[in-house]
Amino acid sequence: MHAETGKSVYIDLNPKTFALPNYFKEHKGPFINNTVYLLSDAHLSLYAREWGTDFNKTMDKLITISRHKDIDFILSTQETSRLDKNIITAVDAVIFKEPSLLASEFERPEVRKLVEEANEVFKPLGKKEKLETAYAITQTGRHVVTDIHLPFYWSNELSKRYGKLDWDTSTPESRGTVLKIRYGT
After folding, report:
1. Is the peptide bond before 30 cis (omega within 30 degrees of 0)?
2. CA–CA distance from 174 to each of 100, 113, 115, 136, 171 (Å)?
3. DSSP code of 100?
4. What range defines the domain where residue 105 resides?
């Protein structure tokens, strides 16, 4: 994204902790125009059952006007059912990796058929092919993307970054890296 647009990419962690390229910047608030915001495991910050919080209401409003501010949001989640419906309806594209075993069974009806499509794409693939394939649904159509490789900066530590979180959520400070965006710290 950065290579094509030149936009800074803001993320919900400290990029220096994981030796990420310098175009990744830690989001410390407020949101900046003409940027990209990558929120990994968005269901942890935009949890559907916490939709009444100020942060979630603000994100709902911001996402609906993001094109006016030239802000791109990229949200990743294992289950869209954990995200509020308003967030899902605002997306311009859905990109699937291989869905989990029961993903389509517990998904919202509107998304279920898309998960079922993705399952059909991945069903005939071998293990290695599944890892290197994505199924994208956009306004221009449905696309099978192959030969995907992890970026040069990827690490197991980055992949497992939530494993070290303290899940005592009694205070905002203890909620861990993923929720920093919520509190602007």
Report:
1. yes
2. 30, 38, 34, 36, 5
3. P
4. 2-183
pLDDT in tens, 32-69: 899 998 888 887 777 777 777 787 888 888 888 998 99
Distance CA 136, CA 37 (A): 20
Provide the number of structural domains found in the chain: 1
Contacts with 5 (C-beta within 8 Å, 6 or more apart), sequence order: 36, 72
Tens digits of residue pLDDT in 93-102? 999 999 988 8
Are the C-beta atoms of residues 96 and 135 closer than 8 Å to each other?
yes
How many Å apart are CA 20 and CA 153, to the nearest integer?
Answer: 6
Say if CB 162 and CB 176 are below 8 A apart: yes
* CATH value at residue 95: 3.40.50
With H, G, I as helix, E, B as strand and everything else as coil, classify residue 71.
strand
Farthest CA pair distance, the chain: 46
User: Could you tell me how far CA 116 lies from the centroid of its own chain?
Assistant: 20
Q: How is 14-68 classified by DSSP, letter by letter? A: -GGGGT--TTEEE--SS--SSEEEEETTGGGTSBGGGTTSHHHHHHHHHHHHTTT
